[in-house]
Each structure stands twice: as C-alpha cells, then as structure tokens.
Known about the structure:
By secondary structure, the protein is of the alpha+beta class. The chain is built from four helices and eight strands; from the N terminus they run αββββααββββα. The longest helix has 19 residues.
Amino acid sequence: MPKHIRASALTALTAAALAAGTVLTAPAAGAAPKAAAPKFLSASQLPPHPTSAWTAGPVTEGFPEGLGFCVSTEGVLDYDYRHREFRTDLDTSAVQLTVVTGTAAQAKALAKHYDDLIRTCADRIEESSSDIEAEGRDYGSLPVEEGARVRGLHTETSWGATDISLLSVGRDGRTVTVVSWGQMGDFGDAPVGAFKKTTTTAVNKLY
Length: 207
C-alpha cells in the first residue's frame, strides 16, 4: 500500500493496536526461546503480476514497517519476529512475517489477535482520518495446518487515491505467519484466488 496512506493512519492504528493487544501482554521474562527458523515464500510463489516479475528481499530480523498499517507488536510478547519484503517494478508490494511463539496456545491466541486487528482495520482507518474511506472483506478460512484466514482491505482518500490490500494470518504449531499484498486499485483488482494459494504455500512451507 502506498506510503501516503500509511502516514495518514499509522499513529491512530498503533494506538488502537495497543488497546486491542493488551490481553496478550506479559513480562519480558515470558519471551519465547529461540527455535528453528521457519522458511519463507519465494518471489515465484506470490500472485503473478501481469507485467512485472516479483523480486524478493532478504529475510530480515524484526517486525516489518509495511505491516504496521493494520498489524503491530504493541501489547504482544517479545517474540522472534522475522520478515521478507517483495516488490515489482510497478506499484505492487508484499511482505511476509513469521512469529515463533513459546507454545501452540500462545500461537493460537496471537493468530486470533492479528486476525482481529485485520478484521477491524477498516473501522480504525476511518476513525483515524476523515479523509479516508475504508472497507474490509472476509474471504474465508483455508484448511492448511492449524488454519489460515484471508481478508481484503480497500481504501480511498478524499483526493482520489485508491488502494487494495489482501492480508492473511495462518498458523503451524507455535508459529504464526502474516502475508500482505497491496497495490493501487479496488476489490476488482485483487487476485483473491492466487493470494489464497500463496497463503496456503506460506503456511505449508514454514516447516
């Protein structure tokens, strides 16, 4: 999603994520121990772009800025965060986050927390800025490992910028992955079927 929309909503969304995430807060001593690193998507496993090939960045420690729009670490345990960003030569981008928790129960709670943040993201965007109209859609669950869910988010600004994102949350044991895809456009431009395939691959590929 273009940076002009991120900038207008990021502050309010961070505050909202803090409020939504307090149920998962715990002392730093509860942080998950290091574990075998989960695997990431490759560029060829993203929804095909009609005119430009995907390029994959390196796997990087930490939480990606690109997910801070709807998902954040506020109020969540100090887990092992790693991410990989992807881009095309045009205005299309994607990111995958993996989070290794301490137990399967923690991962289940975290996956629900992230899905709740994505589900309520459109409302929080509109509350944060009168210049942005937002709509979310639920594209359903996927039968992969411990499950995954795909959602869509469309935003339109008062000055005419329109953007579409697809986001998913999936879990394998005590590891959670979040995948985000975005470009200019609306729901009619969203490759929902291909993104569901990407999400299924992302969860299956973790281990």
